[in-house]
Amino acid sequence: MQPLVSIITPMFNNENVIKETITSVVNQTYLNWELLLIDDCSSDNTVEVVTEYSKSDPRIKLLKHSENKGAAKARNLGTKMAEGKFIAFLDADDYWEPTFLKETTSFLEKNVAAIA
């Protein structure tokens, strides 16, 4: 079985770009992932957009800060909640090509390295 990859995406007022970001994860050829989207108190419709995606795919999970704490704290929360063997960071205004996770996990599995 493929190892689980936890994808951590901090968000703040990304309503206009978050659909493309989520779609790029959903379209991955590698299927064993969870997408942790951490909202940092957006004032636009970012949370509503993500909520719709999370209803249709249980791998998409919305986490929310109760106050604005910044992207670093959002990443820390995502890391804490991650269940995967591997963790990947994806910004809310970025996207991946469909084979990104497949190629990356394959490389990591073949080239195990100790990190101190």
Explain how this protein is built.
The chain is of the alpha/beta class and 116 residues long. It is 36% helix and 20% strand. The protein has a four-stranded parallel β-sheet with strand order 3-2-1-4, with helices on both faces. The longest helix is centred in the middle third of the chain and has 11 residues, at 46-56. The two termini are 27 Å apart. The model has no long low-confidence stretch (mean pLDDT 95).
Annotation keywords:
116 residues; alpha/beta; four-stranded parallel β-sheet; globular
Structural class: alpha/beta
Sketch the topology as an H/E string, one letter per element: EHEHEHEH
Shape: globular
Biggest sheet: strand arrangement? 3-2-1-4
- From the N-terminal CA to the C-terminal CA, the straight-line distance is 27 Å
* Sheet with most strands: 4 strands, parallel
Low-confidence stretches: none
The pLDDT mean sits at: 95
